[in-house]
Amino acid sequence: MAYKCPTCGKVWPDTLDLARHIFGTGDQAHKDWVNSKGYNFIELLLIQTMEPGNKGYKTLADLLEKEAEKVD
Amino acid sequence: MAKFNVINTPIHNVDGIAKVTGRAEYTFDVSLPQMLYGKILRSPHPHAKIIIIDTTRAKALTGVKAVVTGQDTLGVKQGIWRRYKELCDEEILAKEKVRYIGEPVAAVAAVDEDTAEEAMDLIEVEYEPLPAVFEPLEAIKEGAPLLHENAERNINVTRHIEWGDVDEAFKQADYVREDWFRCSSQAHVCMETHCAVSSFSPDGKLTVWTSTQSHYYIKVLLSDVLGLKENDIRVISRYTGGGFGSKFELDSAQFCSAVLSMKLCKPVKIVLTREEEFMATKRRTPMFYYLRSGVKKDGTFLAKECRVFTEGGAYTAMGATALYLTGFFQSFPYVWPSYRYDGYRVYTSTPPTSAMRGFGAPQATFCAEMQIELIAKELGIDRIEIRRKNAMYAGYEVPGQATIQSCGLVECLDRVEEWIKDRGKMPPYSGIGIAAYGFMSGGIFNWFDTPYAFSSAVIQVNIDGKVDLFIGSQDMGQGSNTTMSMICAEELGVRVEDIRLHMGDTDKCPVDLGAWGSRETLMQGNAVKMAAADAKRQILEYAAAKMSPNIVYDMDIKDRWIHLIARPERGLSYFDAVKEAIRGKDGQPIVARGHYTPHRKGMISPAYSFGVQAVEAAVDPETGKVRLKNCVTAHDCGQVINPLGVQGQLEGAIAMAAGYGFTEDLPMDDGKILNPNLVDYKILRTTEMPETTVMEVETYEPEGPFGAKEAGEGLTNPTAGALGNAVFQATGVSIKDLPITSEKVLSAIRAKKTKK
Amino acid sequence: MEKFLLRITVNDEYHELYIKPKKLLVEVLRDELGLTGTKRGCNTGACHACTIFLNGKTVKSCSVLAMQADGAEVRTVEGLAEGAELSPIQRSFLDHGAYQCGFCTSGMLLSATALLAENPTPTVEEIKEGLHGNLCRCTGYNSIIRAVKAVAEGKYKGGGNGEI
Fold first, then answer.
1. Position C162 in a domain
2. Which of C79, C102, C131 is the last residue of a domain?
3. Which residue stretches of chain A have pLDDT < 50?
4. Which of B197, B356, B618, B739 could be cross-linked to B209 through a Cys-Cys bond (beta carbons 3.0 to 4.6 Å apart)?
């Protein structure tokens, strides 16, 4: 099972990879999607640095598990 | 028998005569008929709106021929990451807003420098100062002044590198430690400051002489900002007086002189003063580093977590690359089964930070090696042994990032270990510190968005056997002219004196991306080798026809002698064969081409150099002053091409990197650099330079020409860390905040005594 | 502004020039006489790239007004060789690769020539002291020190312009 990026449609093997793609691309479209789901893109990025344990990425990955389209 | 005729022999640098007799003409020396002199007016504010610029009085001064501002330009925001428009954020001549002290706002062309200076005082600029922010950790706070509208919280770029499961791995570790480091900025201090002479003619063509590391980049960037076709611009840079990373982006001397010359159709020369060089050119990226490492009690590395904030300064420049490379080289040169890096580049109202020799790797190596030393101490493991245990090796794959094909790291460790043993016991307050490193030999990236091969070469063999070699690479002192001549001569089978080199002119030379990221030896070298091999093949066609040997024999050329490899006494002179080959080609000289672009070589580089450095230092416990005594480096650059060149690069790298370690700093007060001169900014002088010893560890790198890899940039990686570790060995204090000044050492020694 | 007559012998050639009084010697050498071998790396006399001989002694030509050299004998890097015959220190620099970008090289050669003229057999420490004022960003100095030491050890005899 793989996950499709809700903004650009690129497919990734797991939610952490997809989260990495979204943070890494960081363009307005991807940012807007994250912000539309009740999160703040920049805050998540900063949490990644300020708090231990991959928290920013994990939070986004959990969101993607719920919201991203799953493909085979 | 020697493996090579030319490679790895101590020949004179091909530019030697020109340089020792004062004949070498640098941009600094260029003088043209009717040439005018330009000066640049720069912002005194770190962050301000430009309300109005009144140039009337300046224009009226006798001898002033033109005054330009951002309003006289196309207002194109340019940047070296051309493929990513949101990272092209710098106009050079600011139109609406200035974002650092020293940002250009106007430029003057006049009959002489004194008049241009006087005119600058007559330009009236009304600014509306805005609140500024100077530290990255302040700039990301909510409500901090915003430098660029599209960069929320002033975050310019972010990078993330990850493999393995770091959090799980930390659970398995017997010992975990975290450390915070601060890596300072550094100025390039090229002996020739940034300069350009631009000359625009009524036929719409622009010629620019400039001190640069990449004439191709400057040509294309000028085309972007001036609206001229790329090939209506000619950039000339036969000799460049130092670069070190400061001269491959478009700079204010180039841009302003071009704008002025296009207005006047006269040549305009702009030479930055040493003060402008310090205050308003780009510099090494300062970094705030957090490292957390987990290891087993036997010293096996398990997990490393790294978080970095870099002080970006006002514009992106090459800062995005430094951000990535620091995170990548943080894991070098060891096998870390799990690793995670998060890097953030933050805009601040300071001069932009960009590329400087090492490109984020000296910062990474300083932090990594200082921490490993502390880990070794805590676990009671020998510091060479812990490094050897975890060292990279040939064939290792950095997960998802790179394949290490050649690696002499373990042998480097062995050689340094031997040297340390021979040194014996150190007197009190003396110590030997070590640091290991790895570095790239040219990058695979194309953020510049070039459609061309990354390096190309053209060869023409003439009737007298003289070989014209056309290359695009730039010699800025690192010796690429000599290296390419040697590679050509070795492959073709002639001598270096048979090569006539053509470089430094975009009208006459093929494209090469320039001298940065340690790419010339591997990339331009491969292109040259390919061209020389083709020229040789063409000559051998005629030689084979003439000699008509049994088909089982193959032929080669060595030292101007074409021969059967199996029976070298049977052959003919290269010179004779060339004459006949040209006759056979209907009187056409032999022409050959070569090129190189890395394809599918991982995320960073086709090849990596490695090394281990030991620095012996003595610390004066009364003053904290550090004195360097010895510096020994065991070094793997694959096959050495130019041995005098490698030694020179090593010694120069040590001087620069030691300066980074303990004498050089750019202290600022509200965005203003406080020491913009060569007295207060202290680079190493003769008396501070230690004895240096190079130990070559030979490996063979399949990606490189004759097995060669880079030598010269990677060598700047270890010295700050080795120096810091020497101070640690000598005094027990670990200074994690560069530069390691005598004040910091003394403070730390005293604090340690008080604790006791 | 009134110009003054400057009479100066540079590399054994006599010149008469009319120049503004505030012109520096380095500017006259480079801009009026076209001898661009002497370089400038700063405006504060800190780097010594502009070192030349003035009446047999090394000076920073950026710190001397040209009129102070009226009637004087000057030697620059262009005057170290005699035709195709390089001076001992130039030959030693070539053999030792004692230069990289080359921008500081002229000043280095002049300072080294002066050092050896005053002290023909300096120790490594004395060489370091003698060249202490000349800044170089490329070489790390050690190749330059080796080159000077080799001349001091008599490995390069004669040739070029022995007379300073």
1. no
2. C79
3. none
4. B197
* pLDDT number for residue C70: 98
Residue B304 has pLDDT above 90, yes or no: yes
Judge A/C contact: 3 or more CB pairs < 8 A.
no
Chain B contacts in chain C segment 24-43 (CB below 8 A): 30-31, 34-43
- Under DSSP, is residue B481 helix (H, G, I), strand (E, B) or coil? helix
Q: What is the domain count for chain C?
A: 2
CATH of the domain at C66: 3.10.20.30
Q: How many CB pairs under 8 A join B and C?
A: 171
| Contact between residue B276 and residue B195 where contact means Cβ atoms under 8 Å apart | no
User: Is residue C95 a contact partner of residue B638, using CB atoms and an 8 Å limit?
Assistant: no
Task: State which of C61, C79, C97 marks the end of a domain.
Answer: C79
A35 — phi, psi (to 5°)?
-65, -30
What CATH number has the domain bearing residue C100?
Answer: 1.10.150.120
* From A38-52, B17-31, B457-471, C12-26, the region with the lowest mean pLDDT: A38-52
Q: Identify which of C60, C72, C66, C53 has the alpha carbon closest to the alpha carbon of residue C23.
A: C66
Residues in C closer than 8 angstroms to B686, CB to CB, are: 127-129, 131-132, 134, 141, 144-145
User: Measured between CB atoms, does A38 come within 8 Å of chain B?
Assistant: no
Transcribe B565-633 into DSSP letters: SSSTTSEEEHHHHHHHHHHHTTTPPEEEEEEE---S--SS-S-EEEEEEEEEEEE-TTT--EEEEEEEE
Q: Are residues C52 and C101 in the same domain?
A: no
> How many Å apart are CA B511 and CA B214, to the nearest integer?
10
> What pLDDT shows up at residue C162?
58
Reported pTM? 0.95
Provide the pLDDT for residue B111: 98
Q: Taking 90 as the threshold, does the pLDDT of residue B64 lie above it?
A: yes
Distance CA B475, CA C18 (A): 39
Same domain flag for C39 and C102: no
Q: Write down the pLDDT at residue A52.
A: 72
Residues C41 and C14 in one domain: yes
Closest CA to B404 of B657, B703, B126, B659: B703
The stretches of B231-382 forming alpha helices (DSSP H) are: 252-264, 274-280, 319-329, 361-379
- pLDDT at B1 > cutoff 70: no
- How sure is the predictor about B2, in pLDDT bands with cuts at 50, 70 and 90? low
Q: Domains of chain B (ranges plus CATH)?
A: 31-130+192-242+247-272 (3.90.1170.50), 283-445+602-755 (3.30.365.10), 454-596 (3.30.365.10)
- Same domain (yes/no): C141, C74: no
Domain extent at residue C108? 88-152
Q: Is B724 exposed, middle or buried (0-12, 13-18, 19+ CB in 10 A)?
A: buried
ipTM of the complex, rounded to two decimals? 0.98
**How many other C-beta atoms lie within 10 A of the C-beta of residue B519?**
28
What is the reported pLDDT for B349? 98
Please check whether residue C35 lies inside any domain of the structure: yes
Q: What stretch of H or E contains B469?
A: strand B467-471
Q: Which residues of B touch C106 (CB under 8 A)?
A: 22
B189 interfaces chain C, CB cutoff of 8 Å? yes
What is the rounded CA–CA span in Å between residue B89 and residue B682?
A: 32
Given CB atoms, is C131 within the 8 Å cutoff of chain B? Answer: yes
Residue type, B120: M
In this structure, the answer to whether residues C74 and C54 fall within a common structural domain is: yes
Segments making up each domain of chain A, as ranges: 2-71
Q: What is the mean pLDDT of chain B?
A: 96
- C161 is a domain residue: no
Within a domain: residue C44?
A: yes
Residues C60 and C102 in one domain: no
Q: What are B575-619's pLDDT values in tens digits?
A: 999 999 999 999 999 999 999 999 999 999 999 999 999 999 999
Q: Which of these, B271, B272, B248, B265, lies nearest to B206 by C-alpha position? A: B265
Which residue from C34, C102, C144 is facing B24, i.e. has the nearest CB? Answer: C102
Is C104 in the same domain as C126?
Answer: yes
